[in-house]
């Protein structure tokens, strides 16, 4: 609690770590609109240790950007310790990402895909907490089973975790299946541990934040999407999109960042306006914009289009044709994007699959069912049968005789390219199919070597 109160200043309004989104200019903007604590984007510990450029960009900060927590992902205690030691002088704490549910985290074996490896997690947290001078915090997701979730967070606390951020969703709740975060689990975690707990999930407006504090009794509340669609969420206001957009672009002039980050922020600030069909040309323009001048020009055009409505000079009417009928506020105001409920998504997916099954079924000449794409290909071949012999209609499914890789279609030795290269190298062979000319090149080298030696002998004799 001393870390929470004295080092961090007991923050209640917290901006989440967001890949390609919580960079320095956006953090400063968020702080100006009421955020009390910000995180860096998730940083890959291995790359952070090896790449000085990546490290310099990741640690970009300033006096206005305090307090700050740096977040790392990874699965090697030694590498993560090395990364943490390189970052400890630039932040108030180091956070370990144990909540990312995306496919890239699964491939890299980090984030929420470590939550089943408790021995490794205990080693990572304890190694960092003992080896780094700043506190170590963790951001986690919950299990389906509440009791397992409580055992999980107690294990992290015993390993040396100084603060927990609990995202009240499971690893499987992502994308169209995101759904509602379970605050009952967050409340149970708050009661089970003695360290500060931050709740993450379901924060679309300032009222949600206060309701979360009341229901869960946590120390602070974190938001990601709520902040991206309305950076003034912590002030309880909904400014017109061009106000934070222009202020953010001025900050980018001071603290440059990749244009892809800028483009992403503008798309979210103007999400509802750009969803109107008549503004599709501006949406395309923003998608291809690559300079600060382009971004500012587009924002000012949007401002000119809607400022009279905003100031009451002209009257705005919501119509179904304009795609804004489901909004409570006018579309130019910063406001949350509400996802489709998972049940509705599942229903649509089921209906789509049933529609596919009810569509016309195709068969080949033997009566076997085939796809529409395959049917079109067979018809194309039938129209030009003379090309049948010269064009390979499908890839060979044969395997290399030495490994599981696909067989080279023209290889003399029935091998894949790697095995063929090894065989030619050790047995002094050529393979015209793979264009591997080991024998020919060796013979050529021997020929020129002999020619050079003969020339030297003649020169010595003369």
Structural overview:
The N and C termini lie far apart (93 Å). The protein has three domains: 2-236, Aldolase class I (TIM Barrel); 238-344; 398-462, no CATH class. Strand 7, helix 9 and strand 8 form a beta-alpha-beta unit. The protein is built from 20 helices and 13 strands. It has helices at residues 2-7, 24-32, 45-50, 52-58, 77-87, 103-108, 118-131, 146-159, 183-192, 206-216, 225-229, 242-254, 259-269, 271-274, 280-288, 292-310, 342-358, 372-383, 417-427, 438-461, and strands at 13-15, 37-39, 43-44, 68-73, 93-98, 136-141, 163-167, 197-200, 220-223, 362-363, 369-370, 430-431, 436-437. The longest helix has 24 residues, at 438-461. Residues 389-393 have low confidence and may be disordered. Helix 5 (77-87) runs parallel beside helix 7 (118-131). Helix content is 47%, strand content 10%. The strands form three sheets. It has an eight-stranded parallel β-barrel with strand order 1-2-4-5-6-7-8-9, surrounded by six helices. The protein has a two-stranded antiparallel ribbon with strand order 10-11. Strands 12-13 form a two-stranded antiparallel sheet. By secondary structure, the chain is an alpha/beta fold.
Task: Give a nutshell description of this structure.
Helices cover 47% and strands 10% of the residues. The chain has 462 residues and is of the alpha/beta class.
Note the main attributes of this structure.
Aldolase_TIM, tRNA dihydrouridine synthase activity, tRNA_hU_synthase_CS, 3 domains, 20 helices, 462 residues, alpha/beta, DUS-like_FMN-bd, TIM Barrel, globular, oxidoreductase
